[in-house]
Amino acid sequence: MKASTAIPLALLLGAATMPFLGKTDAQAQNRDVDQSVFAFGGAMVDADMLQAGNPFGVTYADLPIVGVGYQYFPARMGSFRFGLEAGLAGRFGGHPNAEFWGGVVGRYDGFEIGDAVRISPALTFGISYVTHTQEGRERQNELERNGNARTLFYLGPELNLSFDTMPNVDFFWRVHHRSGAWGTLGDMHGGSNANVLGMRFNF
Q1: pTM score
Q2: What is the CA radius of gyration of the chain?
Q3: Which tens digits make up the pLDDT trace of 107-144?
């Protein structure tokens, strides 16, 4: 199955099955964790970041991406947690290459639905370095700006879902975004975007 059809189908399946995974209790919802590891997979999209935020209405390129990462949260303020993230991804299709990123992350754990589901939005901001420019939108942006897409800003907005049946596991959707922020890095305006689905283990 091509990435252009696999990602929307996976999102739809996940949304349909998650309500049946069980109900959470107060102890699980209030778990105190400060570290996590995660893995994800997805595909590059032929769209800007705002368009990528609609995973069912965007065009997917046949450029898969898989990654792993680590988070550490040394600070907490109510339902907010603040910490650091580092990750490594493989980007495939055309010229395979690797991506390394690191930055700061904030997360809010205060949304609950009927004591059954916790929804936790999060945002990671940092710096991303790739070993080779990715074919498709990233390379096109590089050529249009006569820029260098090797080192760009990283932005990772995401939504996490957690359940009582696996209280220390999150399922998440993230927009994996690289950008020069209007020419600030690499003379690049845009960069690349991917929609990814992943699983996070908290401890």
Answers
A1: 0.82
A2: 17
A3: 999 899 887 899 999 999 999 999 999 999 999 999 99
